[in-house]
Amino acid sequence: MPLVTAAALIVAAGRGSRASGSGLPPKQYAPLAGRPVLTHAIAAFHAVPEIQRIAVVIHPDDAELYADCVRLAPDRLLAPVIGGATRQESVRLGLEALSADAPDLVLIHDAARPLVSPDTIQGVLDALRNHEGALAAQPVADTLKRAHGDGTVSDTLSRNGLWQAQTPQGFRFALIRAAHARAAADGRDDFTDDAALAEWAGLGVALVASPRRNFKITTQEDLAMAENLLRSNEPRLETRTGTGFDVHAFCEGDHVWVGGVRIAHDKGLSAHSDGDAPLHALTDALLGAIGEGDIGQHFPPSDPRWKGAASHIFLADAAQRVATRGGRIVNVDLTILCETPRIGPHRDAIRGRVAEILGLDVARVSVKATTTERLGFTGRGEGLAAMAAATVLMPA
User: Fold this and answer.
1) Is 380 assigned to a binding site?
2) pTM: predicted TM-score of the whole model, two decimal places
3) Is 131 annotated as a binding residue?
4) Which family would the database say this protein is a member of (predicted)?
5) Which of 109, 182, 365, 381 is buried most, with the most CB atoms less than 10 Å from its CB?
6) Which residue ranges make up each domain of the chain?
């Protein structure tokens, strides 16, 4: 059977709070090495070329948390699926959402396992070439004890042949979707994972050895351990800086775009796009920091696709290029030069919008404004200019 397409279904609809703490967001949105737990899981699947689509099942109350996680979303990420009351129901709803353009294979993964490696994902995919199902698992290494009700040892169990199930768990899509539908029709909602449901449905499921680091985050101790593992494996980073400059002339109009904020004005800005000089300068600063040319190379003004385009598209693309190369934006600094309009009243809005586009804390965004004391083209009120600097950490 030719295996043509594969999708990942990441289950992130749970309410577990032991890892994040009382009153805090669920563990899949807890910060881990600078990014939410869920973001790490998505990135692992995005790193496997055979995974053409990634769908995430979320709780209906988590739409804003999820949007923050995927602000710099990979191109293969689908719209989120709203989950159900149980994990089993959430998976079934996710499978139904994928069925409109059904893949040959689906890998189902818990968002609370952020340290899954691309090698483990690929191993499960490879096993599906010869099996109806496959799951990542770890051979049981510890001696197992059965306890009495009072907490004393009843007897010792043999660990021979015992494995600890992990995720991803992969299946032929049509088979696992049918198994979930059958379980729902029979009123069975007690399966603890998809492999157990598949076994009940008579599917053959293979074991794929997976490292211990692919553990499930349940407690704050687990979260701290995951943080230490990620930090210890981080590549050596070096600091890079980039600068950018842009200018646009005033023309007829009733508003200007400055740093992603629409400001009413008695003039407009002459440009192929929306003329947002600060965002253009900042885009060039990020591209310069990673040695990827300038905005004109990636979004040439000769291309009609960018006529009138919103400049946040250009800035988000530059940020994605930094992330794709394993980099991290540390801070950005904008200086806007003009006599009018007055920038001061809009400074906080500009900082917030730039932080939103880049996925940064607003404290890492600086916005300054100055005039040129009536000197030069800005002093004569002929246009608006912007300078930008960006600092990023990149693998050495």
Assistant:
1) yes
2) 0.65
3) no
4) In the C-terminal section; belongs to the IspF family.
5) 109
6) 6-232, 237-395
